[in-house]
Amino acid sequence: SSGINAEYGDDHSDLTKADVFSLSLTVYEVASLVTLPLNGAEWHRIRAGYLDKVSNTSEQLHQLLCKMISAVPSERPSPANILKEKFLTGEEKEKINELTRKLNEEKIENQRLLRELAKAKDSPLMNMTSSRLVGKQMNRSMSIA
Predict the structure, then answer these.
(1) Distance (Å, rounded) from C-alpha 22 to C-alpha 2?
(2) How is residue 144 annotated by DSSP?
(3) Cβ-based neighbour number of residue 61 at 10 Å
(4) Please, are residues 24 and 69 in contact by the beta-carbon 8 Å criterion?
(5) Cβ–Cβ < 8 Å for 50, 58
(6) Tens of pLDDT, residues 80-138
(7) Is there a contact between 78 and 16 (Cβ–Cβ < 8 Å)?
């Protein structure tokens, strides 16, 4: 993340607010899969407290990320206040629960298939040394081209 705060310079009295700023940009980059600029007009827009909303995220999360990059460091929430935020909507929580349930179902199915594969490997047909099922004792015919 390119979340370095120019306003702190040599004053390191409250680096927590700088960490909050950087965390916001890191979360934004991960959620949006966008690399943020290191300088230029877009960077100044972000420094002014503006972030584009990431699709498939709640408005609450967007608002929180914007608060976390406020141009006025004292207006940024503390880490404790960030943890108190409820930025997942009911729909997002349901989606997470549904995906977790599906993942667990797929894990169970995967385990069943692994057991089935192990049984198949132990079958007499899999232990044959020759791949020929018919005519094992017969010589193969040769074609003349």
Answers:
(1) 7
(2) -
(3) 20
(4) yes
(5) no
(6) 888 777 665 566 667 767 777 888 899 899 999 999 988 888 877 666 555 555 666 66
(7) yes
Q: How many residues does the chain have?
A: 145
Asked whether 16 and 80 are in contact (CB, 8 A), the reply is no
CA distance 57 to 96: 12
User: Using CA atoms, how far apart are residues 78 and 82, in angstroms rounded to an integer?
Assistant: 6
- The residue type of 111 is Q
Sign of torsion, CA 22 20 23 52? negative
pTM: 0.53
pLDDT tens digits, one per residue of 27-74: 888 888 888 888 899 889 888 888 989 888 888 888 999 999 998 998
The structure tokens 């914007």 sit at 66
| Contact present, 74 and 15 (Cβ < 8 Å) | no
Distance CA 113, CA 64 (A): 44
Q: How far is CA 122 from CA 79, 115, 134, 138, 139, in A?
A: 56, 11, 21, 27, 28
Q: Which helix H or strand E contains 98, and what residues bound it?
A: helix 90-122
